[in-house]
Design a protein that fits this description.
Elements lengths: L1 H23 L8 H53 L3 H16 L3 E7 L6 E8 L15 H9 L3 E3 L6 H4 L1 H4 L5 E9 L2 E10 L7 H66 L3 H34 L3 H16 L2 E6 L9 H22 L3 E9 L2 E8 L16 H13 L3 E6 L5 E8 L5
Parallel strand pairs: 6-7
Antiparallel strand pairs: 1-2, 1-5, 3-4, 4-5, 7-8, 8-10, 9-10
Length: about 450
């Protein structure tokens, strides 16, 4: 670019000087008009040719640099998008490797991650030629070029593997690689992995290659941090959910066992008095209670399995409703406006599926309904869940203990508060029940 600026100033001045010198007589000699015209034409043509060669050469160089920069930005954008769109480390690493091998013309690429306990380098992702890099085995810190990049925190370049066979180890030597570049992945001033590319032919890695790999490595390091943080959050949420379920199941089972114990004692009393019909009636109630407890436990197990298998609310909810319909013979209409639903965090999804599950369980146990409607949508910056049944309803102002399970209602409210939501239940005897859950959209991520 600087050369172009100089030429635009110097070239015209030189051209006019040359023409005037020829016209007025160079070195004091006078020329014929025809000679002057010919000489001026030659000078103009030569100057134009040289000027165009320099200018267009510089433009082509700039264009190549722009194309290269755009390609690099495309790679970084794809990697950054993968980091933002997915918390799966495997997905992010695979996209990064595919793009870098394409843009650099490398034959293969591999990412090693540092094991937090053993400090060994573990292969995490590969792309390109299957045999281009080391075997998928662990490497010690300092072992080979990959281990050296990890322990030094500096890039390691090997332009000719065959000339450095003694320092690279037999795995890479026998892989067929000719040139190798190992870039450490650094996060919070510590090496979390090594990003490696290799070629089958001799390759001298340019500063552009180094810049691209370094910038990509920075994005990969961010992805590693995000994925590991997500795993910690998921683990903490799983522990909290297990503790919550343990409390709920303990309280629920305790209530059932207490009720069964009372009924057994009553049945024994009637039996000792010879009142067979009364004893049979209490035994029948015990049988019904056991069947109800079995159904509750089955629902809980189904909910646990769905939250483990599915990573999104909608697929889990659809499967749960399908199973619920099969086991209860109730008609359930599920309406989900998926286009308006925001992206939900796993913790929010778990709590929402549990609230819906508890509401449907209460319909099954108490409402004597024939049909249930479930709506999910998002509006006015709120995620809304509405569950309506056509059962017998109850007095929401002064509910009797047998109208609405106070334990189940408490569970639902606790879960709603856990995700900063509000839960409202309205019901009129003979007109069914309506459950509304609202969660601020700002709290769902």
């Amino acid at each position: 670019m600087t050369l172009l600026k100089v030429l635009t100033v110097v070239a015209p001045a030189f051209f006019f000087w040359a023409i005037e010198s020829i016209r007025n007589g160079l070195f004091g000699y006078a020329y014929q008009p025809a000679v002057i015209t010919l000489a001026a034409t030659i000078v103009a043509t030569g100057a134009a040719f040289l000027f165009s060669r320099v200018v267009f050469g510089e433009i082509e160089s700039i264009q190549r640099e722009v194309v290269r920069t755009n390609e690099e930005l495309t790679v970084l954008n794809i990697v950054a998008s993968a980091v933002n769109e997915s918390l799966s480390l495997e997905v992010v690493l695979k996209k990064a490797l595919d793009e870098v091998t394409h843009i650099t013309g490398a034959d293969g690429a591999e990412i090693f991650l540092v094991d937090g306990e053993t400090k060994e380098l573990v292969p995490a992702a590969r792309a390109g030629h299957d045999a281009i890099l080391s075997d998928p085995t662990r490497l010690r810190a300092g072992e080979g070029p990959v281990g050296m990049a990890a322990i030094s925190g500096e890039p390691v370049f090997i332009e000719d593997v065959l000339s450095n066979a003694s320092s690279i180890g037999p795995a890479i030597k026998n892989s067929g690689s000719r040139s190798l570049a190992c870039i450490p992945l650094i996060s919070q001033n510590s090496v979390v992995g090594v990003f490696t590319i290799a070629t089958l032919s001799h390759r001298k890695f340019s500063p552009d290659d180094l810049r691209l790999m370094s910038n990509t490595g920075n994005q990969i390091a961010v992805a590693i941090d995000n994925a590991r943080l997500h795993q910690k959050v998921q683990a903490a949420a799983a522990i909290e959910e297990r503790e919550r379920l343990a409390r709920e199941m303990h309280d629920g089972v305790a209530q059932v066992l207490s009720y069964i114990n009372v009924k057994i004692q009553t049945a024994k009393s009637y039996l000792s008095l010879g009142q067979i019909e009364a004893t049979q009636a209490h035994l029948q109630e015990l049988e019904d209670t056991c069947q109800e407890a079995y159904a509750d436990i089955r629902d809980s197990i189904l909910g646990l399995r769905l939250s483990t298998v599915h990573t999104a609310l909608v697929p889990a909810l659809k499967e749960y409703v399908a199973r619920f319909v099969q086991t209860t013979l109730l008609e359930v209409d599920l309406d989900v406006d998926e286009d308006t639903l925001p992206v939900l965090s796993p913790a929010v999804e778990v709590q929402m599926i549990r609230i819906i599950q508890e509401a449907l369980t209460n319909v099954r146990k108490h409402a004597e309904a024939k049909r249930v409607w479930v709506w999910l949508s998002s509006k006015d910056h709120q995620l809304e869940v509405t569950i309506v049944d056509d059962g017998h309803g109850f007095d929401a102002i002064r509910p009797r203990k047998d109208d609405w399970p106070q334990f189940g209602l408490r569970i639902m409210k606790e879960r709603a508060e856990c995700i900063k939501g509000t839960l409202n239940i309205t019901s009129v005897p003979g007109q069914g029940t309506r459950v509304e859950l609202k969660v601020p959209a700002a709290k769902v991520n």
